[in-house]
Write a structure and sequence with these properties.
The complex is a heterodimer. By secondary structure, chain A is an alpha/beta fold. Chain A is 30% helix and 26% strand. In chain A, helix 1 (12-18) packs across helix 2 (20-28), helix 15 (482-495) crosses helix 21 (624-636) and helix 17 packs parallel to helix 18 (553-562). By secondary structure, chain B is α/β, with parallel strands linked by helices. Chain B has helices at residues 7-25, 37-50, 69-82, 92-96, 101-104, 106-124, 189-199, 263-272, 291-297; strands at residues 29-32, 59-62, 86-89, 128-130, 147-150, 178-181, 210-217, 220-223, 238-243, 256-257. Chain B is globular, with a radius of gyration of 19 Å. The relative contact order of chain B is 0.16. Classes of the chains: A alpha/beta, B alpha/beta. Chains A and B meet through helix 1, helix 2, helix 4, helix 6 and strand 2 of A and helix 1, helix 2, helix 7 and helix 8 of B.
């Protein structure tokens, strides 16, 4: 293989052959660096990785034989070995000739082990790059020396910086094709520096390489005598690992699992997100704020004197304090904050666009909460870095948003602590991971607006009325009979001296929600407001009845989660679409069918029927009177 | 700053973290146990993750009845030592039809392993299954997620996998869907061996060289492990000093000639060897280059 350097870089073979135990002892002490490679299509990413694997002897004879055969058959390098074929894994992409997903590769040098995330440069795959970058300590940004800084170079650099990668390598590749010209390298480096400082990258290491020919990969190349180093591998072997830097930060352990083999042992298992911990250290449990001290650090190999960031351990505590999955055990004198409203950057990763106001699951460290996202403050154009106005975020869009959670979460700014500042959003219906997020800070209104404790509480108000508050939430298609039955229920309750209030869909839209239309986002906001009003009324001790189509399961569940357990009673008025359309009391179906009404539930907007409603009313077999009696029976019985 | 934790420490911590995360969302998890060296490491990590509790799930061995006898011995011993329940599943249809690697070719793997695994998971209603696959083993595995979603029919769609960011795993799933979790995804073959040495983990003796009765067939050295091995005319089992780099069904697993009788020597041979680990396995070669990817879409692990 052409290698422009005569210096043998890998001297391990001799040691392996002569003294395997000495080799293993040395190898066992190696540290681990994770990095990503990114570049545009044809910048030579796969070739570079193939080269790293080849030079570090990670390619075996049988693989090489297959590679040589493949190179001749489908390779793009004529009769020479096409290293890219080594790493382009899935059949689909071998046919298309592009990398379509994140692939992880492994190699070892004298000093370190490496995990490489091979991330795609293709336009529509921002999400894969963010995924690969999220676990990386370093990013290698590839540039084709013939092309210079491209739009995609800027995009990749921005993303690497956004995800908090501290070490950036600018690998100016294909130097062999520009005659190893120093001025080309200098010009590209200069252009990159100007752009990098714009986005806040203050430091990067530029290296002129040829992945194909092997220049400046393992050793300095004679073809670039003007370049003083370091070679790529040498640099990778010496940069600081992010997790090692985390040891200097305050102690945090997100609790994953409570270990209770018997009544005498209660341990809290988790991986240290930052800092170090010793038996006897004072700790604070969050969010409760209770303090205690660490008793033991328990492992199968015996108790430890100390644990450091990155280790998975089990702690026992000196006192019997409440602590469960999702809690964070932290340094008592330097705990993280808790809050329920944040500003964050979101990278949208799903085909279905973000819906402002919809509730998603938010997972941060070991905490899972329900969270709603407001319409973006702005979207960031990753090519120009301009801030754009946006109502939503589409696949691969990046934006800054405000998020509120249904209960406080323990967090730190992403820039301070990746584990306590990075989160994902999960769609409640499809369970898909739809976004990655990075928390900036909690919003002042969350910090400073505290709950005012009042002396008269909801139980006292309810007992004065001699009733248990409840929310009867009617849902069903337009014309299913919700309002009719709800009205009957309220009349009967009134006769029974129960204090009630009926919130009707149409009536609310004349006042409280007159500013809302019928788009998906507006319908969600409509339900959220009604939910909040219903909650206030139930706090006042009332039996609240609502009659809204409320077509989306996620929003009904959102209201359910606002109320105390058992108070939300979902009443599904189950009328088949054909039947509701036949009745068409308000003539709306006719209009919708004629195309005069947009976003009409059941026609051109979906209705998600409840999966397990507390009460289901089949209006094809029951009169409104019978239905009302049944509902009251269930409510009071 | 010096690095306090070595690469093995970091890999261990990551694997333990993954196993504990599974416990947050799984209703009925199980650990697939194939008795090989990767399974041995995975089991050891599970014991560490939950100590002093025993791992809170059973072991499942999807048996083909054609494993090496030494594998069955170690399997039973490790199940007893770990205090975990051992479930052995053999596909009844494969059993009834007498499916075997000599007469049935690819159908053997398909029925005993692929179908057997699906049947066992369905029968017990397991929603999460730990597997010991590693990303360095094979090209299509390099792209697989740590949490890999399977449809209700156990299919794998490489385009529908969820992005995995940081160490946050989304283990939510709909009814009927299941997840295969690969806690040692980021380990390499060398990591596995070195960890076995560091932690003193028991492995099947077949990984070490010893004189064993073998025949050479289709370029592979096969061990005649019991009298079900149909010898072709003129074939006489010869005692050779051999060991195995990977273990599966004995008629499908090629041995390498070796004198390595200690872990250090095995690692030494591995590092100096010039062929890749799966080379001794027939399974990757059925159906050409994309064979593992295809098998996975059909539900093979």
């Amino acid at each position: 293989m052409p290698n422009s350097s005569d210096t043998p870089v890998y001297v391990t073979d001799a040691l392996i052959a002569e003294d395997i135990d000495a080799y293993l002892a040395g190898h066992e002490k190696k540290s681990l660096l994770r990095f990503i490679t990114c570049g545009s299509v044809d910048d030579g990413k796969s070739t570079l990785i193939g080269r790293l694997l080849y030079d570090s002897k990670m390619i075996f004879e049988d693989q090489l034989a297959a590679l040589e055969a493949d190179s001749k058959r489908v390779g793009t390098q004529g009769q020479e070995i096409d290293f890219a074929l080594l790493v382009d894994g899935l059949a689909a992409e071998r046919e298309q000739g592009i990398t379509i997903d994140v692939a992880y590769r492994f190699f070892t040098t004298e000093k370190r082990k490496f995990i490489v995330a091979d991330t795609p440069g293709h336009e529509q795959y921002t999400r894969n790059m963010v995924t690969g970058a999220s676990t990386a300590d370093l990013a290698v940004i590839l540039i084709d020396a013939r092309k210079g800084v491209l739009t995609q170079t800027r995009r990749h650099s921005f993303l690497a910086h956004l995800i908090g990668i501290k070490h950036i390598v600018l690998a100016v590749n294909k130097m062999d094709l520009v005659g190893y010209d120093k001025t080309v390298f200098d010009r590209i480096t200069l252009a990159y520096r100007a752009f990098a400082s714009e986005i806040g990258i203050t430091n990067f290491t530029a290296i002129p390489i040829s992945g194909f020919k092997g220049d400046n990969i393992t050793a300095l190349s004679e073809n670039t005598p003007w370049f003083k180093g370091p070679a790529l591998i040498e640099h990778l072997e010496n940069v600081e690992i992010a997790a090692a830097a985390d040891e200097a930060k305050p102690f945090r352990l997100p609790v994953q699992w409570v270990n209770r083999p018997n009544l005498d042992f209660r341990g809290f298992s988790g991986q240290l997100a930052s800092g170090t911990v010793k038996p006897g250290d004072a700790v604070r449990i969050l969010p409760s704020g209770k303090t205690t001290t660490v008793e033991r650090i328990v492992t199968l190999d015996g108790d430890l004197d100390e644990a450091v960031a990155g280790q998975s351990v089990t702690l026992t505590l000196a006192d019997e304090v409440d602590c469960s999955r999702g809690d964070v055990i932290a340094a008592a004198d330097n705990p993280p904050e808790a809050a329920d409203q944040f500003e964050a950057t979101l990278v949208w990763m799903a085909d279905e666009a973000m819906i402002a106001g919809r509730a998603y699951w938010l997972k941060l460290a070991t905490q899972s909460v329900s969270a709603t996202v407001q319409a973006p403050k702005y979207e960031i154009n990753v090519n120009t870095l301009d801030h754009l106005a946006a109502k939503t975020l589409e696949l691969n869009a990046i934006g800054v948003v405000e998020i509120s959670t249904d209960k406080p979460i323990t967090f730190e700014a992403y820039g301070d602590n990746r584990s306590l500042g990075g989160f994902i959003l999960i769609d409640k219906l499809t369970n898909a991971t739809v976004a990655a997020g990075m928390l900036h800070f909690s919003l002042r209104r969350a910090q400073n607006v505290h709950w005012q404790a009042t002396d008269i509480d909801r139980d006292m108000r309810a007992s004065l009325k001699n009733q248990r508050p409840a929310l009867l939430w009617f849902t069903g298609l337009s014309g299913s009979g919700k309002s009719t039955i709800a009205n009957l229920v309220e009349k009967k309750l009134h006769r029974m001296n129960r204090h009630s209030f009926l919130l009707d869909g149409d009536n609310v839209r004349h006042g409280l929600n007159r500013d809302l239309g019928f788009t998906e986002a507006d319908r969600i906001e409509n339900i959220r407001r009604v939910g909040e009003v219903a909650k206030l009324m139930s706090d006042a001790g009332l039996i609240v009845i609502t009659a809204f189509i409320s077509p989306f399961r996620a929003e009904r569940d959102m209201v359910r989660s606002m109320l105390p357990e058992g108070e939300f009673i979902e009443v599904f008025i189950d009328t088949p679409l054909a039947e509701a359309e036949k009745r068409d009391v308000k003539g709306l179906y006719k209009k919708a069918r004629a195309g005069q009404l947009k976003n009409f539930t059941g026609i051109d907007s979906p209705y998600e029927a409840p999966e397990a409603p507390e009460i289901r009313i089949d209006t094809t077999t029951m009169t409104p009177e019978e239905a009302a009696d049944l509902i009251i029976d269930r409510l009071l019985g | 700053m010096t690095d306090t934790l070595t690469h093995l420490d970091r890999l261990e911590a990551e694997s333990i973290h993954i196993m504990r995360e599974v416990m947050a969302d799984a209703a009925n998890p199980v650990m697939l146990y194939s008795v090989g060296k990767d399974s041995a490491v995975m089991l050891h990590l599970a014991r560490k993750a939950f100590y002093p509790s025993p791992p809170p799930f059973p072991l499942l061995h999807v048996d083909t009845t054609w494993k090496f006898r030494a594998m069955y011995d170690l399997r039973d011993r490790m199940a007893a030592e770990s205090g975990m329940e051992l479930i052995v599943y053999q596909n009844p249809e494969a059993k009834a039809r007498g499916i075997n690697p000599f007469d049935h070719g690819p159908l053997h793997t398909d029925m005993w392993k692929t179908e057997g695994l699906k049947q066992a998971l369905d029968l017990h209603g397991f929603d999460v299954a730990f597997g010991g696959a590693r990303r360095d083993e094979e090209k299509s595995r390099a792209k697989e997620r740590i949490f890999s979603f399977r449809t209700a029919s156990h299919g794998w769609d490489p385009k529908k996998q969820r992005p995995e960011l940081w160490n946050l795993y989304n283990a939510r799933k709909a009814k009927g869907e299941s997840i295969r979790v690969f806690p040692i995804s980021n380990w390499t073959e060398l990591d596995i061996w070195q960890y076995i040495a560091r932690e003193n983990i028991p492995i099947v003796p077949l990984y070490f060289a010893a004189p064993r009765p073998t025949v050479e067939r289709d370029g592979l050295l096969l061990m005649v492990d019991d009298d079900r091995f149909p010898l072709k005319e003129g074939e006489v089992p010869t005692l050779r000093s051999v060991r195995f780099r990977t273990l599966g069904c004995y008629p499908l697993t090629g041995a390498v000639e070796s004198e390595a009788t200690t872990l250090s020597e095995v690692i030494q041979e591995m590092l100096l060897t010039t062929t890749s680990e799966r080379q001794g396995r027939i399974i990757d070669k059925d159906g050409g280059d994309a064979s593992m990817e295809k098998k996975k879409q059909e539900g093979y692990f």
